[in-house]
């Protein structure tokens, strides 16, 4: 929120608590800072008084996952997406028409770090956002395999790792420059509108003075194709596994080359339920049925302990002379050491 500078501290408190309950938000994506989806959601969030900054890639950066790539060039070697900024300009900068919107010539996860460690502390009136939002992406990001590949996801789990609540959002519409979104019937407006409602509900669900999500948790939202009835599409709590896809390599058009396809039938490994509530439906299937899927994720990838994993570890202990194990660990801090 950009409140007038004449407000006193007390007035600001009143303004925050009584009027708009604005929160501080950092947005990013992998489609680029000129994305129609991104800017539609930004407009809706700022419209209700949230204080929002965007730090998003100068160019399209899909499929980068959590890769953190900082450019080594001080200046852009070519124009940014949609020629919004000319080549030769600095590799990081604000949008020519909105000082809250920044581009950076790096991967989505790099944009999150540059946002947290440079743009916000230096140019915003807050340093640590209450929430990071990534997307809405053009195209869904469904299932555990795609989760690690997606730049939308990568930017979200980078924020979660930095202790900041994050929501990754993916829609089913196609790319559009922000200046071509021409009203409420546009797909980008619909995707943003549905996203906005979900984000608002999540923000309002958090108890006062509490983080918007538990530490180490984030949310993955996937939105099916939308029509006129988009306001009534149900939101279903889902899990990442369940009907999820994984890639296989198939011959490309040029002999000796390969491309990817979705493995069919679906692989059991990517659909094994290991964490969370196994009774929840899979997000892939829920979106295929035309509903909005909402999965909680954590950045703790540690596998559950089972009799089978215990016996595996016992065998390793015998084979390698590994010191440690259960008896060596202290509560809350098991550090297991191997003899060199
Ligand atoms: C980058 O551009 C600025 C002008 O915006 C220029 O002063 C500077 O020399 C350029 N840096 C490089 C490494 O080309």
Automatic annotation (TrEMBL):
Q: Which named protein is this?
A: Acid phosphatase
* Signal peptide coordinates: 1-22
Q: Lineage in the entry?
A: Eukaryota, Fungi, Dikarya, Ascomycota, Pezizomycotina
The record ties this protein, via Pfam families, to: SurE (PF01975)
Q: Compositional bias (Basic residues) at which positions?
A: 331-340
What's the family?
Belongs to the SurE nucleotidase family.
Q: Where is this region: Disordered?
A: 321-340
- All copies of domain Survival protein SurE-like phosphatase/nucleotidase, residue ranges: 25-230
* Keywords (A to Z) from UniProt: Hydrolase, Metal-binding, Signal
Q: Name one GO molecular function term.
A: metal ion binding
InterPro entries registered for this protein in UniProt = SurE, SurE-like_Pase/nucleotidase, SurE-like_sf
Q: Which organism is it from?
A: Cercophora newfieldiana
